[in-house]
Write a structure and sequence with these properties.
The protein contains ten helices and 28 strands. It is globular. It catalyses: Hydrolysis of terminal non-reducing alpha-L-arabinofuranoside residues in alpha-L-arabinosides.
């Protein structure tokens, strides 16, 4: 027999806007994300435009992908952008020391990335090289991409076939400077971030949104060092307008870094521990937000989670440095939990980027060299949640929740969030119970629904995943939405995610 939960939604109390950029993506020169994923080359039999794989573009356009972060990740801090422009035959190769120690031919560079963003309709998020680069190198990259008129970098861009500048709003000042980006102390990096930000100039109408490379998980000391470098505690002054956001990274790793576990073969205990770790991102977001509120009470500095997602052991027989993993229904629930947290903290959290888009970690898409393409369960969560883009967050209260005792701590088995835009509301619901169905009463307050519809994502088991031969093992289906005295009622199967759309 299904248990019951009541979810109260205040439809007449719209809160902060949920930025569409919370649904951002990440593409690193890592494994088969770029080569074989996004890019197959102009001579490939797989349909492409300028070497960019068109079935990948089509699938991602269906997500209304808002931004794409590139070229890394750890790779960003060994990437020198001038090696990736001009005729491909003249581009020098390099060794990707971080990911598989493979040779990189630089055939996918700045112009190819910008062409990809134009095909996707996505805003570019360029991550610059602080670890092994220079201030001048990054400053010239900004000039090359965004300056009009005449200058050395503009002339070089035009010689490479692009007359008009691009709009490139988002710029990362290095990546994981505490680790692969240089193993720096927080204070040393904070000084570099100020220096780099000073020389990353706005050109014309392209206004830069500079993002300082922030902490791993809940390292508040790192965040505070960055805040101290542009503000002061309780002084009442606005932060220096050097960088406009601070990032952090948070991965859902249920095991240890040495033994992360399988993406598709896991126990019930592994399942619960994974979702508990995913839920803990809320504690981390709250901690960074509270610290930022002390130094920046007007919330002029954004918080950016530009790497998040599950991290499992690679699939057997694949290169350990390529981070190729399958993607099961469990991963979809990790995504749905994260988005509920993002929606609740939309006033401070302004951008997030799942790691990564194609063939790496918690990917949207898995491809093969024969033209096969698979939409993962995580892809479907992104697609089902599109209605939250730039909508106003609504207060949601889970009443009469169901819980599970995990090591003496009550773990919530129901997660929900909601938003409103243009006379429509979207409610996202997750039933984390792996075995039991859940009846959910949507207690609609402050307004009523004139029309409703639902969609459901579930599978035969949490370990289920999609393949080229079975692409819809985990795919959305219609969900029955019934009237109820308090509003509406739906029944969620075990381990499922659902959205309910309301016309108000």
């Amino acid at each position: 027999m299904a248990s019951t939960a009541r979810v109260a939604i205040d439809l007449d109390v719209p809160g902060p806007t949920i930025s569409r950029h919370l649904y951002g993506h990440f593409a690193e020169h890592l494994g088969r994300c770029i080569y074989g994923g996004f890019y197959v080359g102009e001579d490939s039999p797989i349909p492409n435009e300028g070497g960019i794989r068109l079935d990948v573009v089509e699938a991602l356009r269906a997500l209304d992908i808002p931004n794409l972060r590139w070229p890394g990740g750890c790779f960003a801090d060994e990437y020198h952008w001038k090696d990736g422009i001009g005729p491909k035959a003249d581009r020098p190769s390099m060794v990707n020391t971080h990911w598989g120690n493979v040779e990189e031919n630089n055939h996918f560079g700045t112009h190819e990335f910008m062409a990809l963003c134009e095909l996707l309709g996505a805003a570019p998020y360029v991550n610059g090289n602080v670890g092994s680069g220079t201030v001048r190198e990054m400053s010239e990259w900004v000039e090359y991409l965004t300056r009009d008129g005449d200058s050395p970098m503009v002339r070089q861009r035009k010689a490479n076939g692009r007359d008009e500048p691009w709009q490139v709003p988002f710029w990362g000042i290095g990546n994981e400077a505490w680790g692969c980006g240089g193993n720096l102390r927080a204070e040393a990096y904070a000084d570099l971030a100020r220096q780099y930000a000073t020389f990353l100039k706005d050109h014309g109408d392209n206004k830069l949104y500079r993002i300082a490379a922030g902490a791993s998980d809940d390292d508040l000391n790192w965040t505070e060092a960055l805040l101290k470098s542009i503000s002061c505690l309780g002084c009442g002054r606005d932060p220096k307008n050097l960088y406009q956001a601070i990032s952090f990274h948070y991965y859902t790793v249920a095991g240890t870094w040495e033994n992360k576990g399988s993406a598709t073969e896991f126990s019930l205990d592994d399942y619960y521990r994974t979702l508990s770790k995913a839920q803990d991102v809320e504690r981390v977001v709250r901690a960074h937000s509270a610290l930022m509120d002390a130094y920046d009470p007007e919330r002029k500095i954004g918080l950016v989670l530009d790497e998040w997602g599950t991290w499992w052991d690679v699939e057997p027989g694949t290169n350990p440095g390529f981070l190729y993993q399958q993607n099961a229904m469990r991963d979809a629930l990790v995504a749905s939990l994260h988005f509920d947290v993002f929606h609740r903290h939309a006033e401070r959290l302004v951008m997030a980027n799942i790691a990564q888009t194609v063939n790496v970690l918690q990917a949207m898409l898995l491809t093969d060299d024969d033209g096969g393409l698979v939409r993962t369960p995580t892809y479907h969560v992104f697609e089902m949640n599109k209605g939250h883009h730039d909508a106003r967050s609504l207060p949601v209260h889970v009443i009469e929740p169901t819980t599970y005792d995990l090591d003496g701590k009550a773990m919530d088995l129901v997660s929900a969030s909601a938003s409103v835009k243009d006379g429509r509301a979207l409610v996202s619901l997750s039933n984390l119970d792996p075995d039991a169905a859940l009846d959910v009463v949507l207690d609609l307050r402050g307004a009523s629904s004139r029309e409703s519809s639902g969609r459901l994502l579930t599978a035969s088991k949490p370990q289920a995943y999609n393949t080229v031969t079975d692409p819809d093992a985990v795919a959305p289906v219609p969900l029955v939405v019934e009237p109820e005295p308090r509003g509406l009622r739906v029944t969620l199967p075990p381990h499922s995610f659902a959205t309910v759309s309301l016309v108000l």
